[in-house]
Description:
The chain is α/β, with parallel strands linked by helices. It has one domain: Metallo-beta-lactamase, Chain A (4-Layer Sandwich). Helices cover 27% and strands 23% of the residues. The strands form two sheets. The chain has a seven-stranded mixed β-sheet with strand order 6-5-4-3-2-1-14. α1 packs across α3.
Amino acid sequence: MRQRAGxxxxxxxxxxxxxxxxxxxxxxxxxxxxxxxxxDGGMPHLGCDRQCCSEARRTGRTLHxxxxxxxxxxxxxxxxxxxxxxxxxxLALFHRLAGTTGRGRQPVDAVLxxxxxxxxxxxxxxxxxxxxxxxxxxxxxxxxxAAFLTxxxxxKQLVELGQLALHPFAPGVAIEPLPGLLVLTFSVPHxxxxxxxxxxxxxxxxxxxxxxxxxDAWDRAPGLLQQLMHGVDVAYIDGTFYDGRELPERxxxxxxxxxxxxxxxxxxxxxxxxxGCVRFLHCNHTNPVLHDxxxxxxxxxxxxxxxxxxxxxxx
Length: 315
């Protein structure tokens, strides 16, 4: 009964025309879900007293950090992409959408990480003995990220106790975090204090989905955006800032994310052709697209979209 409820919820949240074509009436083997859409701190954001977060605290509005989940409907295996600080709530949603029950201390079979900034890997700690006490969660990440986890606590302890089983890869090498699911790996420029930063293209039987939640401004890597977008059906792209005016007190040269306005200018033709399949996530709590319906509608008229919690793609 619970599996049927999860399927009904999943069908209700399928993306519109861009991801649902006539053949999508029959489910694909792999289904992808959006489990979070915000920047690392989510919303409400610790330390923010602006209206965006004070109003969110008053109304109970919550946005979790950017994360995806993939279920293999044949085996029931679950892949979590990014282990955020809100991992429990996100995995509860993932299980409902996937129609999964009884996972207990093994909430997922595998994790795929992009880099070592707090909103993307802190949730790994909850697989440790103080919380889930999981065993052998396959953790796929770059070689440099794996070296960081192996050398630094508390992640080091989880590796030594066998709660995480690291599967490092060389950037540019295709991997298979779930049997039958191919993932293309791309090294992208970002603030790489502790690890390098990855972008991924998930290749399913029907569609290719790009996930690049963090990257420096596109002009720092000429040609990178076109390379990432090649052959992609749905793209989840860094939308941290809209035009940079939302954080006047911060030096954006230190933060370096591409502005949504720049990304849209570069992908205008592509977005129009794909009809809403270029979708922004990792949005900062101050980003006006989260709070201004008129602005959001204008973006949608240009062929772009804002990722929504729970939306899905048949891979």
